[in-house]
Every structure is written in C-alpha cells, then in structure tokens.
C-alpha cells in the first residue's frame, strides 16, 4: 500500500473563501522577494506563494476556488488566519 505524503505547511492557513470570494493574503510570507517562479495554474512568473510554498498568483487561486468549489474544501488555497482585534470584542 502506498503511503501518502503529507504536504508541508509553511504556516497555518485560515478559512477557504466561498466560490467567487477573495483570498485574504496579508502575511508577508506569501511574497518571495528573491525569486519568481511559474504559477502552478497559469505558468506566468509570480513572486506569490501559497501556504504550501507553491508559486501561485492570488487571482489564479481565487479563480480555481470558484471553478472547483468541491475540491477547494481540501484547502489547496486558503486565506490567512485573521487576528482578532480588540475592537471586535462586544462585551463591556
């Protein structure tokens, strides 16, 4: 029986946007300032990286999620975890 390899996460991803939604990629680790590589979806050079360190343009990832809503639930592309701000607390 073949053993499945676990993909190495660079950091913990957050929520997967609904089809047609936008990814929230605010973390600087999505940007490689030293090297551009071909996007895994469109093959254009990009400095952007997914949580799995795969080169991908953000717009391509959003389009892929919209076209593959079932497969998107597996978390190939996800938003960053958004820190809670003190402004979000609704208690006194």
Give the arrangement of secondary structure elements.
Elements: E1 37-38, E2 45-46, H1 58-67, H2 69-72
Antiparallel strand pairs: 1-2
Describe this protein with a few key phrases:
15% helix; 4% strand; mainly alpha; 92 residues; two-stranded antiparallel sheet; single chain; globular
Structure, briefly:
The protein is mainly alpha-helical and 92 residues long.
Provide structural commentary.
- With 92 residues, the protein is mainly α.
- The protein contains two helices and two strands; from the N terminus they run ββαα.
- The termini are far apart.
- The model has no long low-confidence stretch (mean pLDDT 84).
**What overall geometry do the principal axes of the alpha carbons give?**
globular
The Cα radius of gyration reads 15 Å
Content of β-strand: under 5%
Task: Detail the poorly predicted runs.
Answer: none
Largest sheet properties: 2 strands, antiparallel
